[in-house]
Amino acid sequence: ASAAAGTLSVDIVDAGGTPVSAPSITMGAMALSFTYQTVNGTFGASAQKIRVNNTTGNAQWSLTLAATGGATAFWDGTPADYDVNDPTANAGDGGDADNLGGQMTINPSGATITPQSGCNTTGLTLGSSASYSQGVTDTITLLSAGSTAGTNCYWDTTGITVSQTIPKEQPAASDYNINMTLTVTAI
Q: Is residue 156 a contact partner of residue 18, using CB atoms and an 8 Å limit?
């Protein structure tokens, strides 16, 4: 057997299709609170679309999102941090070793898929809402393509909902950040 010709790739592109050099998601602002809070954001916008391009002969692939730092990753900020994958209620700290609370949920189910002109969305399935949980759910599927999906096409995805619980009394800061990695894998 030989590998299918062409490439399968993912990138973040602007409205004109040019790769974005430093893509980002802006989450909602929150002030210090004595109860836990939830902030929201959107992954995939007209200026930062998620583009999967498949020029191989294999129609099947899966697009996933995970913290670049792996299962022990967390939101890094000054003067404090918080977790991305602790399922403890009310953004509390659970059984992992980092002494941080907080959990991110990704909901691609209501996202919009825009195919390249001349292509369609047949065979594409958006993922379900899921929350990161250390060692249990470290990767979340955003989009998958079945055997009836097209090839020699690209698809842009926008409008994936992101929510993050923030622990009570979390210090306010403008520099909280976490690096995330998109991966597209042939099936």
A: no
Rounded Cα gap, residues 20 and 15, in angstroms: 10
Instruction: Tell me the per-residue pLDDT of 144-177, one tens digit each, with 9 for 90 and over.
Output: 999 999 999 999 999 999 999 999 999 999 899 9
| Residue 122 φ then ψ, to 5° | -55, 135
Model-level pTM?
A: 0.94
Q: Give the span between the Cα atoms of 142 and 12, in whole angstroms.
A: 14
* CA separation for the pair 105, 158 (Å, rounded): 16
Q: Residue 23 contacts by C-beta under 8 Å, 6 or more apart in sequence?
A: 12, 48
| 50 touches 179 (CB < 8 A) | no
Q: Nearest to residue 157, comparing CAs of 123, 180, 186, 125? A: 125
Phi/psi for 98 (5° steps) reads -90, -5
Residue type, 92: G
